[in-house]
Specification:
By secondary structure, the chain is α+β, with helices and mostly antiparallel strands. Helix content is about 25%, strand content about 20%. Helix 2 runs parallel beside helix 4. The N and C termini lie far apart (about 70 Å).
Amino acid sequence: MIDASYNDAGLLPATRRALLHRLATGQSQGRAPSMVGAVMREGNLVWSSGRGELPGGARSEDVQYRIGSITKTFVAVLVMRLRDEGLLKLDDRLGTYLDTPAGGDATIAQLLSHTAGLTAEARGPWWERTDGALRPELDDLFGDRPQRHAPGRLHHYSNPGYALLGALVERIRGENWYEVLRREVLAPLGMERTTLAPAAPHADGWAVHPWADVLLPEPAADTGRMGPAGQLWSTTADLCRFAAFLTDGDERVLSAATLAEMRTPEGGSQAPGQSGYGLGMQVIQLEGRTLVGHMGTMPGFVAMLLTSPQDGIAGVVLANRTSCFEVWGVAADLLTTVAELEPRIPAPWSPLSEVKDEHLELTGSWYWGAAPFTLRLCAGGALELSPLGSGGRASRFRPEEDGTWTGLNDYYAGETLTAVRTAEGAVSHLDLGTFVFTREPYEAGGAVPGGVDADGWRTADGCRAADGTGAR
């Protein structure tokens, strides 16, 4: 569990100065009445600060802001808990569990990844600025054309889709989605300052005039049925706790394996800098890093939570201004500043505690056709395939009980790796989703589909090269 106390002693003075400068620049250039930021490293809150007008006497990491669509990630965690408990399957149709006016033909995974094809917004008036009592039932969320695209066709962000997921949680658990969240996620993670309604000290929401430095207060409506799409309020300290959980998992809530699954992109998006959307998480490729998290906007507020699992670092930024999209860049810069100025110190190398001979014999050089690869054995019998030279597809593989391995990332995610053996038990070749890997480039012997020319490799003049003599 993350240490709740403010602590920047673990960072170098130059790093702290750079973080403060970036936050101050973001608040000033973004013309935000206030902006607070924090950094989580290795499960601890290591830096936090605030700029602008904060409630008197309040520490920046304890001031609540509305976090908008970061709420969706919390709801996704609840849905994945139901999946892990065997109460639903991601490929199930929503209509299997919920009598809904729209989205019933979409799968739960499609709703989580915004590929269900549902309309982007709830039926008017503008749901973010009006009382949820105007939409008391699920039937009230959708207009005449709720389905804008066929399920699974493309990524189309849908706020009502997450309202349906909240209703799904309520149907299966038998109580309000927020009460489920508070008991199953917030309490175990120590997130006491994440609430459905604001609790002092909290920031007030503002709009800033585009052509003058003047403010207009924004309403903070209870959105009712649309709450799972963006209702929550939180603090940078609580969101750093959440970021630590999203990075490493917590068996009281979700395993690290399930969170890794949620971070895998399922649909693309046109959002700036975003390369995909997983199961309730945005995935951003930035300067060689894969950042995951979520942005949130509501009238008067904007929020960004980004984690880099490879670095063990997260950046969180909250501001109380409508449409202050600078926060995503500030959060990314806070994270990368720490990662670059104070890179993660790797754990000490140590040998594997247990190795099976049949796994060890698979390691070393392999060839897909003439392309060279290496296969390394990792802890727990996992395998890591890496290309040699430029290009080629890399992946990690999880061992299965039947003696095969399943791909965990990129092109080979979900594909099966099998060590094919001869009748005598020796390894003949590797089969990876029908691709054949042999110990020599285009090795003769029948393993390579389509066969290998009997005369083998040739020199430039057409001579055989196998015996090194140039003889035909």
